[in-house]
Design a protein that fits this description.
alpha/beta; Rossmann fold; 17% strand; binds 6-O-phosphono-beta-D-fructofuranose
Length: 358
């Protein structure tokens, strides 16, 4: 017999499309069990800051609003790194959970949040179920995280738009996309957007390889080319292009597009290049059908797990099935990068895309 009566839900890390669909799914599924749902504001801040910041979410209230259909996080999210010691934050987190009388907390987050928040929960003795989300798709042990598909759509749309202007001006246009240190987003978008070149952090590339491909395009009679580069890509010799850091000293990716553009322009006269750095629109476009339905599947599964007495697990999509993994296993697995054996990398190579050296 499980003793759950009241749960909290929070979104943690960079936002993405589909978070509010997860919230709807959790609220509606929990309502079926007669549980109360507390929406925690601004990630863990809502529980670690004083006064506590939260609101009660009801099926009649939340699903009656446009929010479940929109991107962003209705609850707000926290992506600024940790400012105090984990022990202090875990203690305040635990006290916050106790003050609200929560029996468990559902955490919608990526690899970083699974690790940080599960650590708080462990230290404070709080039950947690994780629900994976991130446009980077690097959360381990799940094939897809909520938000990835919508971000891919934003990138593919950008490539479709760029192709038209590239053609008008006979240019090679570079699209720099997000993804942190994983190339999933870049590779999926490049394949769907029929790019000529796709550079990802996991596969080394050479300038000569890029130029060879551009020249091949030129000689084929095509007057334009599209290049996708993931923000985590380094220079040919492996140096970061920027030393930028955020307010808490974590590195900020970005700038590789401009770097490559100059490099190509200085070394190849076949095409002029220009750069589009797509930025945060990758996180804020409309959630796709895939992300909305994945959100509903994973959110309701998280509630079902709790109802059946499970805790300390992350729900996941694995081999086409909905399943879950222990949080310890998820944290130990770290971050999942793009494999050279991914069907998308293989397909890209099969259709002649330059994706770096074999
Ligand atoms: O992890 C999601 C993500 O959008 C990454 O792709 C990107 O590197 C990072 O967050 C950007 O974070 P911020 O919004 O803090 O600049």
């Amino acid at each position: 017999m499980n003793s759950i009566k009241k749960i909290g839900i929070l979104t943690s890390g960079g936002d993405c499309a589909g978070l509010n669909a997860v919230i709807l799914s959790v609220v509606n599924a929990a309502t079926r069990f007669g549980w109360e749902v507390y929406g925690i504001h601004d990630g863990t801040d809502g529980l670690t800051n004083r006064p506590l910041s939260y609101e009660i979410l009801t099926e009649s209230g939340f699903s009656n609003s446009p929010w479940p259909r929109l991107s962003g996080s209705y609850l707000g999210s926290l992506n600024t790194g940790v400012k105090e010691s984990p022990e202090v934050l875990a203690q305040r987190f635990g006290e916050g959970v106790k003050e609200l009388g929560l029996d468990a907390v559902l955490v919608v987050g990526g690899d970083g949040s699974m690790s940080i928040v599960s650590n708080y929960c462990k230290m404070a003795g709080v039950k947690m179920i994780g629900i994976p989300k991130t446009i980077d798709n690097d959360t381990p042990l799940t094939e897809f995280s909520v938000g990835f598909n919508s971000a891919c759509q934003a990138c593919t749309n950008a490539l479709d738009d760029l192709m038209l202007t590239a053609r008008s001006h006979h240019r090679a246009l570079i699209l720099e996309v997000m993804g942190r240190d994983a190339g999933h987003l870049a590779m999926h978008a490049a394949v769907a957007g029929f790019a000529d070149i796709c550079l990802v952090p996991e596969i080394p590339y050479t300038l000569s390889g890029i130029i060879k491909k551009l020249d091949e395009v030129k000689k084929s009679g095509r007057t334009h080319a599209l290049i996708v580069v993931s923000e985590g890509v380094k220079t040919e010799t492996g140096e970061a292009v920027t030393g930028a850091v955020n307010m808490v000293g974590e590195k900020i990716n970005g700038g590789i597009g401009e770097y490559l553009s100059k490099l190509i322009n200085n070394n190849y006269k076949g095409f002029q290049t220009r750069v589009t750095k797509l930025g945060h629109v990758q996180r804020s476009g409309n959630p796709t059908t895939f992300d909305r339905s994945l959100a509903v599947v994973l959110g309701s599964e998280a509630v079902r797990l709790l109802a059946e007495g499970h805790t300390d697990r992350m729900v996941a999509l694995s081999k086409g099935k909905v399943t879950s993994f222990g949080l310890d296993e998820v944290v130990a697995a770290g971050t999942t990068g793009l494999s050279e054996n991914s069907p998308y990398v293989i397909a890209a190579r099969n259709i002649g895309m330059y994706v770096g050296e074999k």
